[in-house]
Target: DUF3565 domain-containing protein
Amino acid sequence: MSPVHPTLIPRRICEFARDAAGEWIVHLECGHRRHVRHRPPLSNYPWLADPAERAARIGAEIECERCARGEPPDEPPRS
Model:
């Protein structure tokens, strides 16, 4: 039986983009994409609003739940 909350795997942020609704998406080194929203208390990413702070997060790690579930990447992994 698989766990209800899989162990999250840290992956590096490669770039930021916006989806059609204007929500932020991070492209991760593993090839997955993940929405990132600042909606406290559930998700706390106040740095999303500042372009310089977003740029400073390139190369930082963020959890990839899709890697933990063994899902295939959306795009080729980056090195």
Summary: Residues 51-56 form the longest helix (6 residues). The first strand starts at residue 9 and ends at 18. The chain is about 15% helix and 30% strand.
